[in-house]
Amino acid sequence: LAIIGPALTPEPSQQDLSRILRSPDTTGLLGTDHLGRDQLSRISTGARNSLVTVLVVLAVSGIGAGVLGLFSGYISGRFDLLLQRLVDAVMAMPLLVLALAVAAASGNSFWAVSFAIAVAFAPLSLRVARAAGIEQSGSGYVAAARISGASTIRIVLRHLAPNALGPWAVVVASQAAVAVLVEAALAFLGVLPGRLTLGGLLGGDVQIYMYSAPWLVIWPGVALALMALAINLAGDWIADSVTGRASAPV
After folding, report:
1. Sequence-separated (6 or more) residues with CB below 8 Å from residue 158
2. Which of 17, 27, 132, 156 could, after both became Cys, cross-link 164 (CB 3.0–4.6 A)?
3. At what angle do helices 110-137 and 95-106 cross, to 10 degrees?
4. pLDDT at position 205, please?
5. DSSP characters over the chain
6. Tens digits of per-residue pLDDT, 174-192?
7. Coil/strand/helix, residue 247
8. Confidence of residue 219 (pLDDT cuts 50, 70, 90)
9. Widest Cα–Cα separation across the chain
């Protein structure tokens, strides 16, 4: 629905004042809102925008923080000490407070808020990867690579990363679904007024009509729950597959 839905449904901002608050029927499978806009179209577009947040979190919190954690565990020393104190500072900040502060400073920029969510999730991914890096850095194959003259970047990316992939993938998979719910909570609070997301469809003017037109909140809520469930199931499957492949040292 998120990938192909917007291409098959009307423009989500298209208004039809003759179909205001129309209940679900054959002409509008999920009904219309108080401005006559098609709910299916708005939900599919909102789901796509919510998925973008997941991709940002995976890129920053998953890949970026994971690789940084591997370098921190392998290099250790002052670099590791400084990085861990920075991680402690980030972990001391409540997630929603951090995201709201970034939203206020950036003028409710979608990308800034998504990046703030990713930064808030980064410490766990970084520390799991760091622990795996510390554990693997004393292995014989790492010592052999070091003796053969391999660079630090090659050792971390070619040898440490594949063997630390299992626990890291489990953490990232669990964070992806939570990121969707956090983004929905922020949108519900009005942090992203110019961005159509599933959380945004549950807030604002919709709350005025939710009793007379319950489909305005039921279907976005169902879509949000199904998205979180789907991401959890897909993440578990990927984590299990990666853990199986990463069971033997590379």
Report:
1. 145, 150, 250
2. 132
3. 130
4. 79
5. -TTTHHHHS--TT---GGGTTPPS-SS-TT-B-TT--BHHHHHHHHHHHHHHHHHHHIIIIIIIHHHHHHHHHHH-HHHHHHHHHHHHHHHTS-HHHHHHHHHHHHTS-HHHHHHHHHHHHHHHHHHHHHHHHHHHHTSHHHHHHHHTT--HHHIIIIIIHHHTHHHHHHHHHHHHHHHHHHHHHHHHTTS-TTS--TTGGGSTTHHHHTTT-THHHHHHHHHHHHHHHHHHHHHHHHHHHHHHHTTS--
6. 888 888 888 888 888 777 7
7. coil
8. very high
9. 76
Give pTM, 2 decimals.
0.78
Q: CA-CA distance, 112 to 168, in Å (whole number)? A: 25
